Amino acid sequence: MEKTTLTVNDFNLKYSFESGQPLSFYADFLNNELAYTAKNHIVNIKQENNKIILKSDDIIFAKKELISRFRLKDPMKTIYNEISTDSFMAESISRYKGLHITLNDPWETLVVFIISQNNNIRNIRNSVLKLIELFGTETEFKTKNFPALNDLLNAKENDFKKCSVGFRAKYLKNAVDYCTNNLDLYKLKQKDYETIVQELLQVNGVGNKIADCVALMGYGKLEAFPIDIWIKRILEKIYFKGNKTDIKILKSFAMQKWEKYAGYAQQYLYWNARNNFNSY
DNA sequence: ACCCAGGCGGGCG
DNA sequence: CGCCCGCATGGG
Asked: How far, in Å, is the CA of A116 from the C1' of nucleotide B5?
């Protein structure tokens, strides 16, 4: 294993990993050390204050992977300035300073978030690990890659059910077919936010929330603002006097308030709500 | 036993 | 159109 170190600012590996983003459903985080497989390579990341210790069989690849996956070039000072519009957001940011949005493979992101619907973190991870075990290709290090679209072409609905995904099995099967025959996820990379969402919504089993998650974490569209049950609850509690409020209203409120970095605002709200909801 | 989880599609009014 | 309900699985 080759090794290198680099210096980072306004980055916290633990928060970025733990906050319910795609990597959290299959990577290992033990003793403050993150380990996962990407494109047939081992990636091993450890943080000590402002220092990242990176280990890999291919250190050039791993360095690019690290910088890209954790968006280390994001202008965090600017982002914090833009989204810190009120005391609640300011507190959310200060609690989890250094939490980055991650940038993941679009297909991987789509699969993970299809599995996430009406589900909980623990079950999602359990299903994703089973999916990798069943369909992921093995590396020379005996670890497995997250299954690419091509690895799933022959998977049947019943094969997906072996991964404890229940009713979502038909959505996964449909997503494989649709992305094989009707939609090239990788061509979408050059499109804008609205186009990406509209295209993703054509996939049966993908609604507004999943489309926004994929736009944000699979395509890097930072203006996307996915609204799940926790975002809904915390927005209502903090900004709507506890009143039940339609998701469409919440969404236009958030997108106007946080604009091009709404996705970052969303991630800080989400993680703060998940961890501290009852203290507000 | 009942409720909930990073929702969505379909059917009914 | 909007509203509401079922949906698999596992844990509290």
From this structure: 9
